[in-house]
Amino acid sequence: MNESRPPLISVANLNFGIGETTILQNINLEISAGEILTLVGPNGAGKTTLVRVLLGLLKPDSGEIRRKEGISVGYLPQAFEVDPSLPLTVRRLLSLTQKPSLKQMEAHLEEVGARNLLDHPVQSLSGGERQRVLLARALLRNPELLVLDEPIQNVDINGQTELYRLIMKIRDNRGCGVLMISHDLHLVMAFTDLVVCLNKHICCSGHPEAVSKHPEYLALFGKQAAESLAVYTHRHDHVHGPEGEILPIEPEEIHHHHGDT
Amino acid sequence: MLRGLMGGVGVALVTGPVGCFIVWRKMAYFGNSMSHTALLGVAIGFAFGVDLRLGILISCIGLALILLMLQSRKTLSTDTLLGILAHTALSVGIIAVSVLETLRVDLMGYLFGDILAVGPLDLWWIYLGGAAALGTLAWLWRGLLAVTVNEELASAEGIPTFAVKLVFMLLIAFIISIAMKLIGILLITSMLIIPAAAARRFSKTPEQMAALAALAGTVSVVAGLWVSVAWNAPAGPCIVVVAAALFLFSHTWEMLTGR
């Protein structure tokens, strides 16, 4: 998408290691506005490290990182958990490092479908609610880039699809770039524009369907990957005819294709 | 007696809010280790003829730095490291204090505090030092709270997490150094943790909990001193027992009201 605009963040020949251990090797990556890019890879593949380098929290050993000047980033950390001893309402969480007005808070909670949660203690939220609130919090920064580290972790199965849909909707409405890390291979393929398969180096990258068929990707994920391919073709906003041509389907139909997989 | 009361209240007003962060950040064991190290600081103070508070400050900061160094090597977990450091420091402190003949009689006072021996100079230290500590905490509040909620998020949003955590560690060391004489090395942690824990059930915001913890600490000091005089029992432990009773009350309250 938006190929004409300069990327939000681009990295070239990036290397990162701790001591003798190589964590990231020769990474080249580009994230553009209006684009959802998903990092997949096994545990210890360096996904979170790469995100932390992109955010500027870690300094790479070598390579070039270029960020759009003055870029605002909204970040959702992995495994967000607040100690029960800390009394913290959603309202207070939203105003932790910023001072949004009540109107702004309500509007952003509305945007993520969590308006009624304003005065709930953070610890009482379900996994899905918590992620929505954190999304609202990130959106308060009016981000050009959303960085989501395992957004559907601790979210129940139904909530997972809803959350991915919400992320797509946010991208559509705001035109921001989205960088996701995902552990699951099934769902994410239907909700992303680009996939980068990471295992210290970039194994393969491209459109989800192409990556799903890539030998290195299949070698890395095996059977799990084959299943995701099946889900992918049925979950997208179009289906493929016998000759591979693209056929549109109604949004409602997407739900009814689950049984096919 | 009045000086003891004033000193105790002054300490409680500071340990309450700071103690909240110790509870939220699960640093109770860290606070304990730091205060155990304070005895070594007492010995340092006497050996080199400097103010005991300075000695305590030096030993506590030393502990924090050694801990940070060992943590970065990641061979042992933090609680094991703290256990090793704290008990070594405490043992070395006891040996040093025993070797320095003149101090032998005061050991109990350093371990459990002697609130009735508070002099005018100590009061100045508590109130001016305490005000400085609270000022520092207020200045640190926003960043420290963000780091406590989620460190990754805080650093992504531009908060200097390492500096914030370091200043907080120094703050704990400073508070232990000014409170030690009153409440004693072995009981300081309780004044940090118990009022904060008792305040939890009645608080909806972090700020509320900090204020209520200061209040709970103050009540513990006043009631504890009263019990101490009435029963002719040592003041420090009396204060701790009253604080524990408040904590128990807060939990019973929770059970009865179903909150």
Task: Give a written overview of the molecule.
The complex is a heterodimer of chains A (261) and B (259). Chain A has 261 residues and is an alpha/beta fold. Helices cover 34% and strands 25% of the residues of chain A. Chain A has eight helices and eleven strands. In chain A, strands 5-6-7-3-8-9 form a six-stranded mixed sheet, sandwiched between helices. In chain A, strands 2-1-4 form a three-stranded antiparallel sheet, with helices on one face. In chain A, helix 5 links the parallel strand 6 (145-149) and strand 7. In chain A, 40% of the residues are buried. The model of chain A is unreliable at 230-237 and 249-261 (pLDDT under 50). Chain B is mainly α and 259 residues long. In chain B, 82% of the residues lie in helices and 0% in strands. Chain B contains eleven helices and no strands. Chain B has helices spanning 2-24, 28-48, 52-71, 78-99, 107-112, 120-149, 151-156, 161-183, 188-200, 206-231, 235-257. In chain B, helix 1 (2-24) runs parallel beside helix 6 (120-149), helix 1 (2-24) crosses helix 9 and helix 3 (52-71) packs antiparallel against helix 8 (161-183). The model of chain B has no long low-confidence stretch (mean pLDDT 89). The chains are: A alpha/beta (261), B mainly alpha (259). At the A-B interface, loops of A face helix 6, helix 7 and helix 10 of B.
